[in-house]
Amino acid sequence: MAKIGIIGANGFFGSALCRNGKKQSHEIVQITRQNFDRYKKEFFDIIINSATPSKKYWALHNPYDDFVQTVQLTADLAYNWNYNKLVQISTMSANELETIHPYAINKKAAEVISSYKKFLIVRLSNLFGEGLNKGPLFDLLTSKKIFVDIKSEYSFIDTDFVANWIFENLHREGIVQVGARDTISLQKIAEKLNLQVKWSGKLERIFSKNLEPGMPGVEEVWKFIEKHR
Q1: What local confidence, expressed as pLDDT, does residue 99 receive?
Q2: What CATH number did the domain enclosing 59 receive?
Q3: Closest CA to 49 of 133, 102, 119, 99
Q4: What pLDDT was estimated at residue 97?
Q5: What is the secondary structure of the chain as a DSSP string?
Q6: Based on the structure, what is the number of domains in the chain?
Q7: What is the pLDDT of residue 183?
Q8: Residue 157: how many CA atoms within 13 Å on its side-chain side?
Q9: Alpha-carbon distance 52 to 63, whole Å?
Q10: Which residues of 100-127 are buried (b: 16+ CB within 10 A; e: fewer)?
Q11: What is residue 1's predicted lDDT score, i.e. its pLDDT?
């Protein structure tokens, strides 16, 4: 049984890790801003860092703040904490062609730092699931205003699927890409739901051709949409 510390345990994806961690035969330690310093000197077999911001539009306008919360946090964990392996939750935006954006630059820098010792970097596509409160899908369904081109495409994937996949693959090392095996555009979702959407921003296509096997199709997002409309 491994002792696993989940950094950002009360966040959107951190909560999913904690939900699924309870099903595992490991000791799960939920680490938040409130108890962060208390656990800093304890030993962990594995630390999962899910605490870096996932606010791409915010990072564009606050690049230094995003740097502090992404790169400096990861450096603190990698260099100052006592662990055997670090699992870094990252983004497909860190792929080479996307690194002109501050969000991607900071995520890529954090990935480099996380490889200081044994590591697994999990690059995720856009997520949906319990507690979704930001991102293009959330904006589309709630405010009817999005900050990217409405033709942007994403390989949306469920948080619980990803969290379970991570626990099943904690033995892995290196960089892995996890997302739906195909994409859907925001425009297609808006048209099917008869939404009148205001939008501004650049065209995005968040997808990887180098996905791990066994990934679900993006059509799973419709179950979430119908449940949370």
Answers
A1: 62
A2: 3.40.50.720
A3: 119
A4: 57
A5: --EEEEETTTSHHHHHHHHHHTTSSSEEEEE-TTTTGGGTTSEEEEEEE--S---HHHHHH-HHHHHIIIIIHHHHHHHHSEEEEEEEEEEGGGSGGGTTSHHHHHHHHHHHHHTTSEEEEEEE--EESTT--SSHHHHHHHTSEESS-TT-EE--EEHHHHHHHHHHTTT--EEEEES-SS-EEHHHHHHHTT---EE-S---EE--SSPPTTPPPGGGHHHHHHHH-
A6: 1
A7: 98
A8: 30
A9: 13
A10: ebbbbbbbbbbbebbbeeebbbbbbbbb
A11: 87
Strand order in the sheet with 153-154: 184-185, 153-154, 205-206
Range of the domain at 154: 3-228
User: In sequence order, what are the residues at sequence separation of 6 or more whose Cβ sits closer than 8 angstroms to the Cβ of residue 100?
Assistant: none
pTM above 0.90, yes or no: yes
Amino acid, single-letter form, for residue 206: I
Tell me what pLDDT residue 166 has: 98
Low-confidence ranges of the chain (pLDDT < 50): none
Tokens 């000791």 belong to which residue? 27
Q: What is the dihedral of CA 132, 134, 136, 138, to 10 degrees?
A: 50
